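Predict the holo structure. Ligand: GLP.
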Amino acid sequence: MEIAITSSPREASRFAAQFVAGVVRANPAAVLGLATGGTPLDLYRELIRMHREEGLRFSGCTAFNLDEYVGLGHGHPASYRRFMEEHFFQHLDFRPVNIRIPDGTAPEVAAHCAGYERAIAEAGGIDVQILGIGSDGHIGFNEPGSSLGSRTRIKSLTERTRADNARYFAPGEEVPRHVITMGIGTILQARSVVLLAFGERKAGAVAAMVEGPVTAMVPASALQWHPVVKVLVDEAAASALARRDYYREVFANKPDWQRWEGAPSLD
Ligand code: GLP
């Protein structure tokens, strides 16, 4: 894992955007794995800025989102489909046919999930997967206890995650119990992963992911098996990392060819 401790979420998001933009410039037909939540919003804003001001194009790209609530249709304000439209897709030049988000209203959930996996494979696999992290260490909606080899499937949310995400729902509205999420095995197959985490609330999860044992109880720890993971955190999210001074030193003294800006390497 490559750990970058940045001065602010804005700076981390700019780094992440540079990396994603580099992947898209190198391959205009790149396949992007996308996340929802508050964390990637600055990254999305920066990619939109690059599209408007620097001519970064997504018209040949395909996007697969990580997850969706079961039972929420496209029109629901808290659906991830709606979130992505509002904060990302409506500002960019993706072809609608290339935007894939699990369908929370699919009548045959298992068949829908199998079809989602097939679609990722047919698109050639995900080139870069963007991730946030839940305060309990979940990625996508793979809650603690998820199989580290899991594929896209239905999951039940923990009370903690439902409470964390209640802010996106109207007061008094129930947060759905069930979701469809790419599995940990699905995420591990992406060619590269960019994980963002900000704020003290994420510090414990970040430390467990980076420095703890690989365990299904911290789903993000499975990323220790992935050869190309870039973890971008602010100071608060880094505060529980025992080796943070070392990560700072490594990042500050990278050889030029290994720097991320503009010219990311996928290996
Ligand atoms: C949800 C999403 C995750 C996201 C997490 C953290 O559970 N399914 O993909 O990483 O929330 O959200 P936030 O970025 O708002 O803290």
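DSSP finds nine helices and ten strands in the chain. The domain at 2-258 is CATH 3.40.50.1360 (Rossmann fold).
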